[in-house]
Amino acid sequence: MFDGLKNKLKNIQQKFGHSITEAAGPEVVAESPGEPVKTAPESVPEEKPIREGAVRVPEVVPEPPAPEVGKTPESFISRVRSLVIERELVISEKDIEEPLTELQMVLLENDVALDVSDAILAYMKEELVGSHRKIGTSVDNVVALALRRSLLRVLGEGFDLVTYIRNHERPVRILVTGVNGTGKTTSIAKMGHYLRENGFSVVLGAGDTFRAGAIDQIDEHARRLGIKVIQHKEGSDPAAVLFDTVEYAKGHGIDVVLADTAGRFHNRKNLMNQLEKIRRVMKPDLIVYVDEAVAGNDAVVRARDFNDLVGTDAVMLTKADMDPRGGAAISIAQSIGKPIVFLGTGQGYDDIVPFRPAAVVDELLGAEA
Ligand SMILES: Nc1nc2c(ncn2[C@@H]2O[C@H](COP(=O)(O)OP(=O)(O)O)[C@@H](O)[C@H]2O)c(=O)[nH]1
Ligand SMILES: [Mg+2]
Questions:
Q1: All structural domains of the chain
Q2: pLDDT tens string 53-64
Q3: Measured between alpha carbons, how far is 112 from 101 in angstroms, rounded to an integer?
C-alpha cells in the first residue's frame, strides 16, 4: 500500500536532514569538533540504529554501552554525536526551502490535492522553523516527527463506526453512494461482514435497481455471508426497496441497514434526483461515500461533488491495495472536511480496515506505532 509515495518520503526526509544539518553547521554535529571529548561514555545514550520516523524518547536513558571490541570509546562517541543534537538547533525557513519545494513536488506527483499539499507545507514550516531543543534526538527524528504531525493534521480523526452504532438508536441506516465500479457493492458486503463480527445484526438493501446484474451481485454476496437482503425487481424504485429494508430492520430488531445504490443512471441529474429521493424516504443516519484510492485526484473531485449534492458523512476508500501513491487517502478528508471510515484493501470480505490515521502515517513513514 502506498509504496511509491513511501519511498519518495524516505528520500525527502533525508534531504530535510541534510539541509538542516548543513545549515546548522558543526553545532549540530558536535559542540566543538577539535576539543577533547568531555562527555564520559556512561552519560551517552546507547547507539541504536535510527529508523525513519522512530522517535526516540529522550527520558529513557539505557544502560551504559559495553565498548565494542576493537573500537575506542572516542570513535563510539563521535559516531553517536553525529546523530545527536547536542544543543539548541535553530532552523530558518531558508534552510528548508529546497526540501520543502521537493516535498510539494512529491506530494503532487503522488496525487495529493494542491490545497492539501499547501497545508502540509505550511504545517512542516510551523513544525520545523524556529528553535528545537531536543537533546538526545537526531536531526532525522526532528524531521520525521514534523512530517508525522503534519500528515496527521490533514488526515483528520477517522470515524469509529462501531462506537457510532453502539451509541445510536437502532436500526442505524447507512446509505452508500458513489460512482459505478468503485466498489460500493463489495464494500457493503465487507461492512456487513465486519459489523456482524463486531456483534451487530445487519440487513442489506438492493438499491441498485438500474440493472439486473447489480441485484444478482448483492444477492450472491448476501448468500455467501448468510446475511438477509431485501430486493425488488430490476427497474423498480430504489427508494421503495430501501424503505422496505428499513421496515424489515425495524420489524426484526436488526441493528444496521446497509443500503446499496446505483452509481449511474440515465444522466447525472437523474442520479442525483434519485439519491435525493432515497434520502428523503429512508432518512439515512449516515451517508458513506465510496470511491477508489487508485482514482487519485479524480476521487477527491468526485467526493466533493457528491458531498455538495447529496451530502456525505464519511468516506470509504477502496482498492488501497492497488494504490502506490496514496494521494486520495491523504487528501480526501481535508478536502471535503469529512472523515475516512474504512480502507478497502483487497477483494476478500476481510479486506476492510478501519481508518486509523496514526496507522496510515506509520505505513507511509515506515515507522512503528
Ligand atoms: N483490489 C481491490 N478490488 C476491489 C476492492 N473493492 C472492490 N474491488 C473490486 O472492484 C470491482 C467493482 O466492485 P463493485 O462492488 O461491483 O463496484 P460498484 O459498481 O461500485 O458496486 C470488483 O471487481 C471488486 O472486486 C478493494 O478494496 N481492492
Ligand atoms: Mg454495485
A1: 3-154 (1.20.120.140), 161-365 (3.40.50.300)
A2: 444 444 444 445
A3: 14
